[in-house]
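Hi everyone, sorry if this is the wrong subforum. Our group has a chain we'd like a structural model of before ordering constructs, and none of us has done structure prediction before. Sequence below.
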Amino acid sequence: MNHSGEQDSLAAIHLALYDLNAAAENHAQILQTAYAIYLAWCQPARLLYPQKWLYPAAARHFFVAVSEITCSIADVMNSICQRNQSFGNCFEGLSCAQFIKLVISQIPSETAA
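Answer:
Right subforum, don't worry. Here is the predicted structure as tokens:
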């Protein structure tokens, strides 16, 4: 994928997170979450074994531990629930990988990954 295509895809992911009213303690959490979503969007097979194929790839990109990626995703998930009280316990029992699938489903299909 060319660099501008990657930027367009990441912009679409950020917009989907924004539409869900996502926030985080720091900007790095949003970036790490968006990048993990991007990797899964480009290669959906990564979601089959996220602990092996998805989270480590995102962690390598940011030079952090795998646990930091999953914590960032969980924090973003929690922020969405806290900022959208009408959702209730919207992501209770949802794994990080399931959340990623949910966000991907919110991205317009005409946006190519």
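For your construct planning: The two ends are 8 Å apart (CA to CA). The helical segments are 3-19, 27-42, 50-62, 66-83, 96-105.
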